[in-house]
Amino acid sequence: MADDAVSADLTDPIRGCSEPDRMWTLTNVGEATPDILSPLCWSLWGGGVERASRAGIYDFGVLPRSALVVPDDPNQWATACFYGRQAMNVDRARELAGLLPGMTGDDFERDLLGSVRANAIPTRSDPTRLPFVAVKAPLAAIRQRWAPQRVHDHQMAWWRTEVLPGDPADPGALLADSADRFTVVMRAHIRTRMILNTLRSQVESITGRLGRSDLVPTLLAGYGGVIETRLADDVWSVGQGELSIAEFIDRHGFHGPNEGNVIGHSWREDPEAVVRIAAVHAGRPEAERPRARADRAVAAREQAEAELLAGLPALRRGLLRRLLQFTGFQVRSVELTKAGFLTAVDGTRAAAVALGRQLVAAGALDSPDDTFYLTTAELLGPLPREARALVAFRRQRREQYRAVEIPVIFTGMPEPAAVEDADSGGVVRGTPAGPGVVEGTVRVVLDADSDDVLSDGEVLVCKFVDPGWTALVSLAGALVTDIGSPASHGAIVARELGITCVVGTGNGTRALRSGDVVRVDGGTGEVAVLVRSGGLDKEGQPS
């Protein structure tokens, strides 16, 4: 690891800093930006998420208008960047969650991390805000009936006009517009996510009181109409010759590998990965079509609902049914708003590449992708002195950060360590996120853009799942991720497709190897190695 000292000219925006007792996690936000962030990535996400989160909570009346001002102290921000990884400020998030009606800081931490720290500071609502919450929260909930779809449709129209054609006339204007749009859509996404978290807590609480907590994973799945299910089904249609690749890109071209990271490329620029996965779908039976798998998940959820509601009095049955329906609506909405902000990320990407070409032609930079190593402010204003040296320094730092890892959950500044293989002892443990028990052969995939394509029934083991992985996930018999929670994108997509899922293992991609035969238990969160690749048992002996 390089010396931490950075000169006044050679700044490093992605190293991070923290108070010694502050708790952070890579869960959820790490999934949103899975690759090592570049300075341009962080300048979009850091300030954008902070402004959006404050505004989203303000919309519920929980925060006063004065709280919309973003503080200079990064310890008071919702997220931070450590060694190129985006992390959530757990203590700050607990504090804000505790202000929401029907939500506590413990509920939030349990939903996010699977458990609550013994020394977690209790959160309290502010009684002086109750009159504001009483007026604004219902209005915010009413807006949720139409806002997510409207935001998504507006963003798609903009993306098709300003981004999809490529070669923008004014890349600087597109860069600024994309950043503004990211904040606006992220505000809607955060509102939706907060409502969904509250509803999930209510469903878990009610089923627990009824003694049917076993139904929760199925009740929170199979709602149908989730936009990512359509993406997976459209890949199938491409493979069957029912949809052209041009039509697919028009619908989904802003997705791609590591799509939350500005640095990289989207399917708009390179659709080859879609073509490869579609070719695999061409030979699969109709019963394995993503839409058919989603229909089976819907049927399972409806059966679980009927089982839960059967023994309740009419009034309670009606109220619980409405709660479950609204939860399903929010599941669909959270994916709509996520697609919306990803179009803004792709707009930033297109603007940066076009601006890079201009700066190379002007002799200011050496390569079009050098712009990914500058911040939005640096690109929109006069370039920094010695821009080439700054880009080279930051590029080198980013590669150094790629060679190390940091804990998924940590307090204060994380201690980076060299990436090493993990010894699981034959069992990998994570958080249960999709019901079912599946035995199958492991396929470890570290990059959705790689040549790896799953065979029927293989267990996909990966670091994370974002929408760019959806086409690959749709081929899996089960899903195991290093990063994630039951409310994360990968878990939602797996449940909607009826795929057994374990998330947040922390070390699955290092403890498991392609060719291992495993049993994935989506109820307990355990992944047991039955046979090691090469014909060895879990103890390393011939089987």
TrEMBL record:
Can you tell which superkingdom this protein's organism belongs to? Bacteria
A Pfam match: PEP-utilizers
- The residues that cross the membrane are none
PEP-utilising enzyme mobile domain mapped to chain residues: 455-525
What Gene Ontology molecular function terms does this protein carry?
Answer: transferase activity, transferring phosphorus-containing groups
Q: What is this protein called?
A: Peptidase
Originating species: Mycolicibacterium porcinum
